[in-house]
Design goal:
Distance between the termini: 41 Å
Strand content: 5-15%
CATH superfamily: NAD(P)-binding Rossmann-like Domain
Helix content: 40-55%
Number of domains: 1
CATH class: Alpha Beta
CATH architecture: 3-Layer(aba) Sandwich
CATH topology: Rossmann fold
Structural class: alpha/beta
Number of strands: 8
Amino acid sequence: MTEQTVALVTGANKGIGYEIAAGLGARGWAVGVGARDTARREAAVEKLRAAGVDAFGVPLDVTDDASVTAAAELLAGRAGRLDVLVNNAAITGGMPQAPSQVDPVTVRLVVETNVIGVIRVTNAMLPLLRRSASPRIVNMSSSVGSFALQTGPGGVETTGPISGAYAPSKAFLNAVTLHYAKELRDTNILINAACPGFVATDLNGFRGIRTPEQGAAVAIRLATLPDDGPSGEFFEDAGVVPW
């Protein structure tokens, strides 16, 4: 009998994270809904279960060591392993963010969630991922984190507003993703970054032109890569995104 695949999606109580959880759950996977807000987490789990998903809540604040440790322990007790980790939780820090005006406190808060939070969760989950036959890690990034796109034709005008916190945090996350891939190259763990596109979520005041379900598609694809799939790459729906 084939073991049920187990996934954890951070920031899964709404938006893109919820749709990633729904998409993975539709494949018959058990999906941990990672979220710090108890009411929203429980509501998301209830909604997913009503849709036939084997969902379970994972109390998780990616900025808190004790919370992340407890989440790893919960998953260890449930299945003894983790097959897929999707690091989706993120904040913008609010706009505008001109580098000459942004509060350093804001930069610190954004990096704490968007980068250090990913490192904290990934490192806590790695022992469980190493027990999986086909472990996958997906880090939700953004085109605003691509130096190539930011400096290409149109520059900032085509990839979002000037940003002293959010965009640099995604560039930082991309770099971290690359170095995890280098470290893990001799293992069976595949790790990639994903760009969901300009999705209408509360992160951007619902100004996006894509639906959360559309934004989730690339993460679902990377979470289900074959064993000979790529690692250390940056993808969007159309293909590879230049770093």
